[in-house]
Amino acid sequence: MQSLNLKARVAAALACAAAATACAALAVAQPAGRVVEPTPEKQRMIDLGVEHGTAWDLYQHLKEQAGGGETLSWERIPDWTGVWTREASPFFWDPDQTEGTLPTAKLTPEYERRLLEKLERVEQGIEYDPLSACNPAGMPRWLVEPFLKEFIVTPEQTWLINEMMNEVRRIYTDGRGHPSPEDAYPLWDGDSIGFWDGDRLVIHTSQMREGQYQRIQPDYSEQVEVVEVWYKTADDTMVADVWVYDPPALVEPWYTRQVYKKLSNEDKSLRIRYWHCNENQNNVVIQTEEGTSDFADFTFTDADDRPAEAGNEGAAQ
Amino acid sequence: MTNKILAAALASLLGASAAFAHHSAVMFDDQKEITVTGAVKEFQYTNPHSWLLVDVTNEDGTITTWGFEAEGPSTLTRAGIRRSDFSPGTKVTITGNPMRDGRPAALWVRAVREDGKEFNPGEGFVIR
Asked: Which residues from B are below 8 Å from A308, CB to CB?
């Protein structure tokens, strides 16, 4: 029954796409999980995104509001030290998404169809993540990956580091612009420029590759662009207001507030170290002919069923 | 009613996915648990995932090496699980969600060492 319902949604989406019309069926078929209505503050941020037609327009607006922005000096560097991690479930892009509900993005029919087809496959046990091939998450997915993060602030660059796959986003705050169109090409984490508005870092990122926000989240296209405003709200809390623009996939910008928490690390045992994705053969995950995930051969099964040795007594239950 | 069913479907999807960042957990059966007792053969403390290999003696006297997968070193550190906690030969009783295809591997849920100390990799995602 669950499958049939998802299939019905997929079928409805396909019918809508074929007719090239807005589809009321999708609107009424929202699942019954508790959908969190935007707070007035969130709605204001959503509206701010909608008021600006492109990510660049929003970025320029924020720059005007900041009086053109400023460049930091070494004497005035905000304290973003520490080891951080995202607060919300890694599988929801929007922390306000709740179990039993669909992602909060307003998708185009084509990307709604793609999402529902993906959810249908997952429900059938068919799921494969390109990260299994040791690809980086890339932007904007970078924002919601779990594990450890560090934020290194200097006057001319800020490095936003995610432990997994050693992904470093360099945010240039020295006044430079993006590369010219002749020099631009799709990048895993895009090209990011920014300015400071007091202790707030405002970022515009473009030149990203297509990808997915997360495994059970929508896809984004190569036209995706992102505006972020990063700032601390407490010593242990970092906030990033994020607007994603992606005309092929989103009918309006997708605003979310991402929250990162500073981890207790009194003994300094938490350290970001080099992440080698291929160091252990037992972590090799392949995509099967059916399109799902499976481990390749394990190294530890080679010597199975050998005679027992003293001291290895035990049993499977 | 329709909405309730779809909500349940989505909840089940989330359950199926709520495991690993590097790969889907579809190869494990999250509705089953297997528990084995044996001696640590090796603790592969690696990224993106760690593997605790445990030698288990079967009823017929042969040995099977079971592999239990967990997150990488930093998440295990957050869970208080150090590489030195499972040196070769350490006696352990360990529980996990087994592979669907019957291979001797599982998603590590919890382990209890012979001295009674319990190790739960999932605690590595607790923010504190």
From this structure: 57, 61-63
